[in-house]
Amino acid sequence: MPSPLIIRPAGEADFDVIGALCVDSYATAGHLDPTDPYTVTLRDARARAAHAELLVAERDGVIVGSVTICPSGTEFAEVGRDGESEFRFLAVAPAAWRTGVGEALVDACEQWARENGAPAHVICVIDRNHGAHRFYEQLGFSRLPERDWSPREGVHLLAFRRAVPYG
Q: Is the pTM of this model over 0.90?
């Protein structure tokens, strides 16, 4: 049984660890070539924290996951609209895969959305990440094909959405 997981806001001392974790997670899963220019964006947790809400998952004092919450209309929001909360850059350290870290981070995103009155939260996932598609569908997210998009040649992102329960 893993030790308890702590979800907390990221601090200045966490940014380099978060950036490395994101690149390692995406590359280990086979969804990112480490020489891809997108690694610069993944590594720059500091920029995300300046324009969005950056959370970490920590177990036994070690950061094992991270996610960025991007309210609609902010710099890192891509597909959120009408007050929806969008989250991006969800990454879990490969050693912590399948231990509940990803789900805990999604739950934290939902809590943030609820506290901020968002009707739903959305995420985009690269088309070839079938494991993530299943993960979000199992958590009750639905596909939003009308919001799918390509930020650049060869990268196709699929949109998912889940209503935020109130009450």
A: yes
